[in-house]
Amino acid sequence: MLMLGFAGFLGILKILLMVLAAFGLCDAAIRREDAFRAADKQNKAFWLIILALALVVSYLFSILSFLPIIGVIASIVYIVDVRPAVKQVSGGGGGGWGRRRGGSSSDGPYGPYNGGR
Predict the structure, then answer these.
(1) What Rg, from alpha-carbon coordinates, does the chain have?
(2) Which domain holds residue 43?
(3) Which stretches of sequence are listed as region Disordered (predicted)?
(4) Count of structural domains, the chain
(5) CA distance 50 to 67
């Protein structure tokens, strides 16, 4: 009974790690190549290959083996370090859900707010 629960936990963990690698892969695929160079990170092809390998390895191998751990580390490095730097360089950094690119904090939905003047 305990082994069945542990196997279920490992299955859920495997799915979460695959989702992490897939998210990083999809995010790297939509980013511009020059943003990687401008952020002084490895190029886009490098990250696409690393994240694709992380996804495949996390699918094929058990969580308890060595290769999925390396894939998880690569995915976390991309999401925590590379993604914010590339996002900031390409102009997609910070802000809330509704904030437009290049807008001021006093901009409303239909243009700048001038205080009723």
Answers:
(1) 20
(2) 12-92
(3) 87-117
(4) 1
(5) 12
- The pTM for the full model equals 0.70
Q: Looking at the domain assignment, is residue 7 inside a domain?
A: no
Q: How far is CA 60 from the centre of its chain?
A: 21
Residue 96: the pLDDT is: 43
Residue 80: is its pLDDT beyond 90? yes
DSSP-assigned beta bridge partners for residue 112: 107
CA distance 44 to 36: 6
Map 44-79 to HEC letters.
Answer: HHHHHHHHHHHHHHHHHCCCCCHHHHHHHHHHHHHH
Among all chains, which residue has been given the structure tokens 């799915």? 15
User: Which residue would you say has higher pLDDT here, 96 or 11?
Assistant: 11
Tally of residues, the chain: 117
